[in-house]
Amino acid sequence: MADVPHHLVRWAGFAGSVLLAVSAYLGGALPSSPLRSSPVAIWQSRHGPVVLAAWLVGTSLLAWAWWSLRNRDPHPRWVLVTAGLWLLPMLVAPPFGSRDVYAYACQGASFINGISPYEQGVSTLPCPWLDTVSPIWRDTPAPYGPLFVLMAGAVVGITDSLTASIVAFRVICLLGVVATAYAVPPLARRCGVPVGRALWLALACPLVAVHLVGGPHNDSLMIAPLVGGLAVVASRPGRRWPLLGGGALLGLAVAVKVTAVVVVPFAVLAAVVGPVTLRSVIRHGGWVLAGAVATMVGITFGGGLDFGWVGGLTTGGAAVAWTSPPTAVGQTVNSVAQLFGSGIDAIPAARAVGVVVLAGTLVWMWFRAWHQDPLRYAGLALAVTVALASVVHPWYWTWPLAVIAATTVRSTWAALVALVSIFLILPDGVGLARYTKIPGAPLMTLLLILGAVALVRSFRAEDRLRAADRAGRTG
């Protein structure tokens, strides 16, 4: 892999992106395409074999091209040109792999017509494009933060057209990717990570082209201020106004998707100059927290909304797939119970345990970050948050990948997770996880156990190294 020519990587990835755009035109998440489908239904459709072949070959080419340079440090400009080239076909393709953009449009329509998307589903209006929204999300309150709801309302109010709204959402999501390209380099330099490698992992990842832009999904609008806020805090620790600005950027990220809030406590620690003590955390980190809270509260109430959007976090549980490790554990327990004639449903309990474990893990990691690199732990905290969520869509892994790519050189495991996730969604949005509960759920359960063991061993190894270092200095 180390000898693969850069020009071959660039054009192989571009060819893959073109093939994916072809699959989107012939069988993507079009407004008129069936709302309920399956791999078999796709195969039996008019262009089914071509759609699946273009998707498989295109995804494989993109995945190979990205993976082949995962440990290299290409020139940043070359990375940006290559990533931009891979984005082009998806910019002009129909929505790929998801119907979420139609829900965005309907939520915006609800908002500008005086209906809170946090209290009612999009079917309340009714939305003029309701038939394009997946039935599972029609009566579900919006799970997004107030900033994105305001943006969705502005998009629909200006365009007043489904097609124009899709174009506008795609452009906005592209701007989020561009902003991330500006935010990654300063954070990478602060953490001693090669800039070219960080940009390659964060921007050239096929999940970005296929789902963040091709979807399009609003995740890039969270990632950009999240990475930008960390970069500002890391570059100007101990300085009041930069820390306040960095906190404001983090607040913007939270106002798009509340999941970003898990990074704020680690940014508070990163703001400290000198030894981390309770006094220094309050003195320096308090500015980060103040900026984040003020921004989040200001956007919420300034937009005429309330904190009902926090409750939207629980609305995604209707989707059941082994891509969520806690859900996979519940599915595995159910399968084992069925072998003994029992019809229990362990998924709710497994998800509840996942929430408790997540809370405990985040607190534990935060206290560990007091005496280590809090920026690295910010990325790990995002990864754990995704891993223990009740629902995990493949594009969720772009959140931790962007932070991890810029804060640590040990990121192969995060890239591997993203690589596997690329193959889990078909062009029209059918998730293959729904049709592969066996062996998907047992394998995910096993990986969850192995991952937890590896994480604990890694932390213990770090503790031993620090203890040996302290002993060497005192000796």
From TrEMBL:
The chain crosses the membrane at residues 12-30, 50-67, 79-97, 166-185, 197-214, 250-273, 285-305, 349-367, 379-397, 403-426, 438-456. Keywords: Glycosyltransferase, Membrane, Transferase, Transmembrane, Transmembrane helix. It comes from the Bacteria. One of its GO terms (cellular component) is membrane. InterPro entries: MptA/B-like. One of its GO terms (molecular function) is glycosyltransferase activity. It is found in: Membrane. The keyword Transmembrane helix applies. It is a multi-pass membrane protein. Belongs to the MptA/B family. NCBIfam families: MptB. This is DUF2029 domain-containing protein. It comes from Micromonospora rosaria.
